[in-house]
Amino acid sequence: MSIAPPSLATADIEPKPHDYGSRRKAWSKALGFSTLLSGVLAAFVYLLASHTIADPDIWWHLRNAEHLIRTGEMVRHDYYSFTAAGAGWINHEWLGELPFYFAWQWLGFRGLYLVVLLLAEAIILGVFYLSRSVSGNVKAAFLATWITAWLATVSLAPRPLLFGWLFLVIELAVFTKFSAGIDRTRLLPALFLMWANTHGSWLIGIVLLLAFFVCCLVHGNWGRVEAQLWTRRERLKLGWVCALSMAALFVNPWGHRLVLYPFNLAFRQTANIAHISEWQSLDFHSVRGKCVFVVLAAIIVLALVRRTRWKLWEVLFVLITFYSAVTYSRFTFMAAIVITPFLARALNFLSPYRAEVDRPILNGLLLLGMAAVPFATFPTQRQLEQATRTSYPAEALAYLEHFHPEGHVLNDYLWGGYLIWNLRHIPVFVDSRVDIFEYAGVFQDYVTAKSGVGSLDVLDKYKIRYVLHSKQGEPLAYLLMHNSGWKVDYEDDVTVLLERIKPVP
Predict the structure, then answer these.
(1) Are 93 and 61 in contact (CB under 8 A)?
(2) Is residue 4 part of a domain?
(3) Which among 404, 384, 386, 383 is positioned nearest to 394, based on CA atoms?
(4) Does residue 262 share a domain with residue 195?
(5) Could you tell me which of 73, 60, 71 has the C-alpha nearest to residue 104?
(6) DSSP letters along 409-433, please?
(7) pTM score, two decimals?
(8) Is 277 exposed, middle or buried (0-12, 13-18, 19+ CB in 10 A)?
(9) Residue 213, Cα to own-chain centre: how many angstroms?
(10) pLDDT tens-digit profile of 346-382?
């Protein structure tokens, strides 16, 4: 008597021994030590991110995006002030404004905060990936990324600049892959097309791209620095990539004028550079300055002790970014992105990760615990809105909505954007679009008025009838509150609105 063989259906669904092994291996890898460290970094970034969206630029960014969405036209002239009304303006961040605007429309303050958080997470985890690729040691990559993540706090605000730093991470990933023999350079022209329309930091990316290309044309050894001449085919392709990337910069609504804007900022906007805090030199007495020094010292000392060999392009990248960070404090975030992989390589003496001692189940439980923290503590709409009340005239909004000035209003510089978004019937004196006000001489006059020395002359020059300003340690507010020619129309803990009693000259 013969025994019937099992049906094909039964045979198909019967699990095979090696299926369990492959699935278990996949789960072990997905919940491995590297994933756990990524989760720890993500949680750390969440704790670093300030629960506020108090940035002076975001408000006029929202107004610009709203104008574009509703009319289909770019903002090409100043519509918001009376001091530079009609002046031509290049909105070089127009593409980066749209995600923030849509997030605001969707979730309000929480939407803005969520965009900032997601961008910060993507940048830091991207740096961790780069560091792991360069060092080959996940522990060293984690430690280096954790140290330099402190430098990211300089730019954790709702600003298109964050998109620029994310594009920088992508560019560095392309360089790293190319050096390892994996060519992804065809992505760079499209990257620079987006970058040029999102933020002026594209210039940094172009400088690094050209430095990388020049180093590919050089061959030699200089102590512990070396350069290898790449093949003719590689050089030719990279040359075309550089040319196409630079051509992509001109694909924008303003053509060559947008491409020239970063140079305009560097060489023409002297008052902007001189008075805005993020353009000041790095303060080595601050926590951030000390962190930069520690990172630089660690790279130098470890490179000497371990006799690390450097590629020429790596040396140039480190020099360019450290110079930028020391000269202008806003570039400390950029320095963190570029130098972290090299710091991780210097730290790769740490014991390597061993997969056999991993505990996927424990890792999974820890990841779930860390993921629960943001869900439980994510700031509410009210909390985020409340956080702006110490930085903007939020308490005064109810009064100002019914305030229709019979004359010009001089406003606090940091409040200009807030007024542009919330009080559209009041043309501003100045806001954080410093370029148009510097060209017209208005920004320097504002600095004079704010100082308390020569303030009355500036108020007379612009026929100012009202001053809406912060009270907190401001010489201008103190001067006018103690001047018989001015009276207080409104006052709270943050804001004071003063009116001229005598006729406007």
Answers:
(1) yes
(2) no
(3) 386
(4) yes
(5) 60
(6) EEE-GGGHHHHHHH-TTS-BS--S-
(7) 0.90
(8) exposed
(9) 26
(10) 888 888 877 667 788 888 888 898 888 888 888 888 8
